[in-house]
UniProtKB/TrEMBL annotation:
Annotated TM spans: 41-60, 75-93, 114-135, 141-159, 180-201, 207-223, 325-343, 376-394
Protein name: Uncharacterized protein
Superkingdom: Bacteria
The keyword Translocase is assigned to this record: no
Taxonomic source organism: Rossellomorea aquimaris
Alphabetical UniProt keywords: Membrane, Transmembrane, Transmembrane helix
GO cellular component, one term: membrane
Organism ancestry: Bacteria, Bacillati, Bacillota, Bacilli, Bacillales
């Protein structure tokens, strides 16, 4: 991709190289989407959805839907926060550039700059689309002025840029508790900034919020400049490019139940809990053996426990923020479904789809343990829901 034009005597500049790689990446993603969205899906699902979605969006400007009246402004203000947590700044590097970098460092630096710039431009357009989507509710339903809305979108964009830059720095770190802690700290800092932005908008200090946004943009530029000129960021940049390249393929695989998925290997490390793997239960029965396996895996593996914690956190947040009873119960039903799926997912990983443990999946003890863990998982769920209902009906 680099050497062939130079062999023919043609000069290759960084922009031409970036354009070619960006086009190749776009075609790769297009083929991945086209593999599941053929002409029948386009004709009967995607195109009608776009037409109907356009008509619904137009109706929002004419008459605000009834369901929005049940959503307080504080919750509506925080919904786009989920949007800033996605995405990376890309550099359009390839594996072969680790060799090519030695002789053509200026070309690689230019390629990095164009890649970072394209990420800024792409996130700008996407944020503008998000702003256009929420504009009818912000301006018509909540009756806030246009300048406040523009300042909010500017803050949304700067917040996304700063978080994308921080994610780019953390992507090169080894997956351990320190990286997880730094990532959670970054999210907490963003939440604090969003709370400050809400108070500034409510108080009419939009100019101060603009200055905060400028600071966030400068922070993202500072971190990205280090990524561009650092000679030790090649591995990190290639890791990010690998994630972005297969993002649509991973999404397709996630929703494909009958497609065989290659297991992802991870570096083995000593667990911080139960290092000597002593028994948790004195009774030695198959039921207690399954429970011990479930308990140790749940505590050792952050992914399993974090998914359940997120579900309980969403339930607590929805019961506190949502005003209407039907919204509270609807959110609780969705969380209940997620807990059921979570329980089945863990047992599939441990036993059902395990090459050795699959033969135990039909045992009566295993089926009994599945129902036990399902019941235990719902205890915090029903406690939170009961407290919410008692508060809603004024019992306390």
């Amino acid at each position: 991709m680099i050497a062939s034009p130079m062999k023919r005597g043609k000069a290759v500049n960084s922009f031409r190289l970036f354009s070619r790689r960006y086009r190749d990446g776009f075609l790769f993603q297009y083929k991945a989407i086209k593999s599941v969205a053929d002409w029948t899906v386009m004709l009967y699902l995607i195109i009608p959805s776009l037409v109907i979605g356009t008509m619904i969006y137009r109706s929002w400007w004419i008459d605000i839907p009834d369901w929005v009246e049940q959503i307080p402004f504080e919750l509506f203000y925080l919904i786009p926060f989920l949007y800033i947590l996605t995405g990376y700044f890309r550099t359009c590097l390839l594996e072969a550039d680790q060799v090519f970098l030695v002789k053509h460092q200026r070309l690689i630096l230019g390629l990095k700059k164009w890649g970072i710039f394209s990420s800024y431009a792409g996130s700008f357009l996407l944020t503008a689309a998000v702003g256009g989507l929420i504009a009818p509710f912000w301006l018509n339903h909540y009756a806030l002025n246009f300048f406040s809305f523009v300042v909010y979108i500017v803050f949304l964009l700067s917040s996304k840029w700063s978080h994308m830059a921080v994610k780019g720095v953390l992507a090169g770190r080894k997956k351990d508790w320190k990286r997880t802690g730094l990532f959670l700290l970054a999210i907490l800092v963003q939440l604090q900034l969003w709370g400050t932005a809400y108070r500034l908008i409510a108080a009419g200090f939009e100019i101060i919020l603009l200055l905060v946004s400028v600071g966030l943009v400068a922070f993202s530029l500072f971190l990205n400049r280090k990524r561009i000129f650092s000679k030790n960021s090649m591995k990190r940049n290639l890791h990010i490019e690998g994630i972005l390249k297969v993002k649509w393929i991973s999404l397709i695989f996630m929703f494909s139940q009958h497609v065989e998925k290659q297991p992802v290997s991870s570096e083995r490390s000593k667990p911080r809990l139960f290092r000597k793997s002593q028994r948790l239960f004195k009774r030695q029965t198959p039921t207690f053996g399954y429970l011990e396996l479930f308990t140790k895996v749940l505590i050792r593996n952050f992914t399993y426990s974090a998914t359940y914690t997120q579900s309980i956190g969403v339930l607590s947040f929805s019961q506190i923020v949502l005003p209407a009873l039907w919204l509270k119960l609807g959110a609780a039903a969705l969380v209940a479904l997620s807990i059921l799926v979570w329980n089945e997912w863990i047992w599939e990983k441990l036993i059902i789809k395990h090459p050795i443990g699959s033969k135990y999946s039909v045992k009566a003890e295993f089926i009994k343990v599945q129902s036990i863990t399902r019941t235990l998982a719902f205890i915090p769920y029903f406690v939170i829901l009961a407290i919410s209902m008692l508060r809603y009906f004024g019992v306390f």
